[in-house]
Amino acid sequence: MYDGRKSVPLDVELYQHASSLPEGKEDEEFEKKPELAIKLIERSLARGYRPEIVLVDAGYGNNSTFLKALEERKLKYIAGGAKNRKVVIKEREQEKKIRLDELAKSIPSEEFKPVELNVEKPKRVWVALVKGRTLSQKELRILAIVMNASCISEAANIDYLITNVKEEKVTAEWLVLTYSKRNWVEVFYREVKGWLGWREAQVRDNLSLLRHLILVFCAYTFIIYHKLTGGLRRQWANRPLNTLAEALSAFRAALSFRFYNWLQENWDVFTAYQEDLGWLWH
C-alpha cells in the first residue's frame, strides 16, 4: 500500500512452484499467482482496506480473470499489458481486433502528448489515449500507449496500460503519474532484500518461511514509522534520515548503545547466560 508518504506491506502469501509439489499443477495445493493475489485482495478488503486505485503490472494485467475479479469487487485499476495482447477498438463505427503493438504503430505521432514524470529520476514520456477493451470485456475502457520518445520509431521503451476509471477523469498526465506510484512496490522489495534479509532465511518449510517474511514486514514497518515520525532522529541522529538505510543505521546505533549501557550494569547476568549456552566468559 502506498498513500503518498509511505509504502508498507499489508499481507503476504507464499507461492509454490508446480515443480515443488508431488503432483505438479494437478496438486490440490497448487495455486497460480493471480489466484493468490485475489486471495490477498479479499483479506485486505475484509480488514477495511479499500484502495483508491489498484496498480497492476503486466504479469497480472494480462490475466483477464484477475481484472474481472477486481471489477467484481468494484475496484478501480490501472493495469499493464503485453505488446502482443489483442484488444478491441472502434474504427469507423465498427469493432476491430488488433494487437497493442500494432495499435501503437497506427497512432499518428501528433496524438502523443508529452508528460513530465517526477520519479526517482525525472523523465519525459509521450502518451496517447484510445478507447478499447480486452477480448473478454464487454464495455470500452481507456487504453494508453506510453513511450520514451515522441515517435514510435525512436522509442526504446513502450508501455501499454488499461484502466476502468471513468473517462472524464482520465487524462494522459493523471494516468502516467498515478501508475508511476507503482514503483514504490519495487522500492519496498529493494529495501527489504538489500537491508532486512528478505532472501536470507535459513529455513525451508512453509510455516517457517512465512514467519520469516512477517518478521521482515514488521521490521520494515517499524523503521518506516520511526523515520516518518522523527523518533530515531530526535535521539540518535544529528542529520536527516532520508532513506531506509540511514534510518536502519541510526536504529542499530541506538540498540548498540542501549545494550552497552545494560551490559555495564548486568555483566553477571550476561556471563551466566553465556555459560548456560556452553561458552566461557571471563
Summarize this structure briefly:
The chain has 282 residues and is α+β, with helices and mostly antiparallel strands.
Structure explained in plain terms:
The protein has ten helices and eight strands. Helix 1 packs parallel to helix 3. By secondary structure, the protein is of the alpha+beta class. Strands 1, 2, 3, 4, 5, 6, 7 and 8 form an eight-stranded mixed beta sheet that branches. 41% of the residues lie in helices and 18% in strands. It starts with 32 loop residues before the first helix and ends in a 6-residue tail after the last helix.
The number of helices is 10
What would you report as the Rg, rounded to the nearest angstrom? Answer: 25 Å
Number of strands: 8
Q: Average pLDDT value?
A: 91
Distance between the first and last residues' Cα: 50 Å
Indicate the overall shape: elongated
Q: Tell me the strand percentage band.
A: 15-25%
Oligomer: single chain
Structural class based on helices, strands and sheet pairing: alpha+beta
Low-confidence spans: none
The biggest beta sheet reads:
8 strands, mixed
Order of helices and strands: HEHHEEEHEEEEHHHHHH
Helical fraction equals 40-55%
SSE blueprint and pairings:
Elements: H1 33-46, E1 54-56, H2 58-61, H3 64-72, E2 77-81, E3 86-91, E4 94-99, H4 100-106, E5 113-117, E6 123-134, E7 141-147, E8 158-163, H5 172-179, H6 183-195, H7 206-229, H8 231-236, H9 244-265, H10 267-276
Parallel strand pairs: 1-2
Antiparallel strand pairs: 2-8, 3-4, 3-6, 5-6, 6-7, 7-8
